[in-house]
Amino acid sequence: MSLPRHSFSFFFLFLCVLFGTLEASAALKLVSPENRATVSLLTDLQRLGERLPLSQLEALWQDRVFVGRLQAKPGASLPQGLRLSWKSTAPQGELARYRVLVGKGEKLDQVACTVYEISVQEGQEKQQALLQNLRPGTLYSWKVQALDDQGTVLEESGVRNFTVEAGVPYVLYGKHRGNFREFGGMPAGQGRVLPYGMIYRSSAYLPEGEEPREFGECPVIGETPQVRTVVDLRWEGEHPTLAPDWDPQKVQYFSIPSQMYVGIFTVNGMENYRQLFPLFAKRENYPILFHCVVGADRTGTLAMMLQAVLGCPEEIIRRDYVFTSFYSTRYFSAVDTTLKKLADFAPVPDAPLQWKAEAYLLRCGVKAQEIRAFQTLMLGEDFPLSPVLQEAVAREEFIASFTPTSQVAFDVPATRGRAMMQCGKEYLFQGGVEQFLAPEFAGVNEAGEYLFCFQNAYPRPAVGGFQGEGLTAPAYQMREPVRKQVLLSPAGKNAWTREELAEGLQIPPKEECLRLLTPVSSPEDPLPPEYQAVPWKETDGDYLVALSREEKPAWDGDLTKPFWQGVPVIMLSQIDGNPAEKGKVSLRLATNPAHDTLYLGVEFLEDNTPVSRQRGRDEAVWEDDEVEFFLAGGGQATYYQLILNRSGSLLDGKGTNAKWDLTEYATAVKETGAGWSVEVELPLGQLDLQGPLELNVCTTDFPSGVHRNLGATNGIFHSREAFLPIFLK
Q1: Residue pLDDT, tens place only, 560-615
Q2: How is residue 449 annotated by DSSP?
Q3: Residues 579, 659: contact at Cβ < 8 Å?
Q4: How many whole angstroms separate alpha carbon 339 and alpha carbon 356?
Q5: Which of 153-177 are b and which e, b meaning 16 or more Cβ less than 10 Å from the residue's Cβ?
Q6: Per-residue pLDDT tens for 164-191?
Q7: Strand order in the sheet with 505-507
Q8: What are phi and psi of 548, to 5 degrees?
Q9: Among 610, 608, 612, residue whose Cα is nearest residue 621
């Protein structure tokens, strides 16, 4: 049976309306994308980076040929964009321009539209424009109008819809920025998704002539994200300032020079994050954009920490980090080392990454309420509070119940340490224990209890004693009120006498703790029933010994000579502090009887692949097989560096300033067959040392690129707190 002609026409019209394919009957026709198409703004290579299994992506990013070709493409970090095209049969003489209307939702007339007007391209039958910065997973509608010189609509197309591919990075186009993308869209903790429109990341502003490639084939139309706050992570020498494309009347600017990767776990790095994180805890700062130079290292490190504290899965964080490689190659090793280092802050074995990140930020001095505010801003008020934050909130509430006081102070006991002569001065050598750690807070309550809050960010224990007119009771129990623990006295008693309090208390390395001094009648007073006793321990910490030698070395680089006999051999470790099973390097230390000269002997026991060449003083000796010596006075931020390569070439400097030169020194290098060895004589009087000598030794073996160090640097050789004190014996 056949349908009547009018019935078939009605059925065809019904299908067109149902599937949205019916467009205006005017001559202006939309060509692409097809109606109701799913489109992607990413390049094929970017999509491949998101779709490959992670194991395959790791292998691909180790393919130097692939990475080299990737980096050879300018503007590889930019999105591909969506190319809109249409045709018009209107007379060319009447047409002046086209108006492109784009909006969210299915029906264009029901949403607020974005309007773009594009001049007619002479002689082209098919007109086009490039649409950027469309949000993944969103349905859009669009149409085109042909206009004359007066803006009168000559003809109008029908409306088409398209949906942007979901579940991919939201890569943005900005004329003066590369590596520009949204923070939102990533899976987070408790099955949630990071919201769009809150946080952005990018490279620094690129001036004219340096900006990413332009899309010259057709006009670019798209929206630039609105930003309320710009956070600049660049260092002082990189001239941080608010970029000229941001209006200073509308954008607030923060310059916080920041560390990256494992550098964030140093004292300076933790101070960076203490300043950085609270910016993300205030609703009035949003939307926020943060950047460094290329938006890769410092920006990538901050991004992974923010993602971690929001509960994003570790594998997704790793994938997001190497997505930066479309702008500047980055490898999994950097992010993996950083995430692995967070395990040092794990509150319990096998703690989730979120708990480790929270514990790290708390150790930096970030308040629990600030972490909580950031989580709820991004994930909602009902996002569960972790055990780490529960304890931290209780701690902060407990501290708030005390009134600040100066009646009791925490200071260095006069009896601590051993006397040591160095360059004619006598110092109190603490045996690797930091002399003093000022409490972050000292307070008293109505019961006469004194509370002290400590944050020891150093890798060594800190020592001090309590004294002051407020200590009037016969004895004091030393409690940890949140964890319900009592620290027993050095005599094993439940409470400390005033003499024991003054003699010294050690704060463990890399730890935050409360110390509550509760007055009692005697050291034998019983513990509160809910508290657990913790025995007192004294730790000397790590330190080095340089033995005095009457004679001098032969200065031929031979460490088998009599001078070095009997001098203890110290084995350098891997950069994380673990023993080195291969690529072993040894260190010997000695001094003269006057303790004003340091002798160093270093031997590479397993390096028979020489990579080195003769260089001028202060040239790039770090590109060869080399050994680096770092020296400073205890408690001083200023340090000195000496690098010697396998060919005997020297670089010396003060901090990172290679223009500073040593005036007195002697060096010798010797090939040993299995490796090579170095001797160094360094008079200490030319260094401004205002405390006991501290040292780190770091080495590099090429072509393997294997690093070794004395104090664990985690790859950041200039890490000041990795220095170890030397007792000149």
Answers
A1: 999 999 899 999 999 888 899 899 999 999 999 999 999 999 999 999 999 999 99
A2: -
A3: no
A4: 9
A5: ebbbbbbbbbbbeeebbbbbbbebb
A6: 999 899 999 888 888 899 999 999 999 9
A7: 409-411, 462-467, 505-507
A8: -75, 140
A9: 612
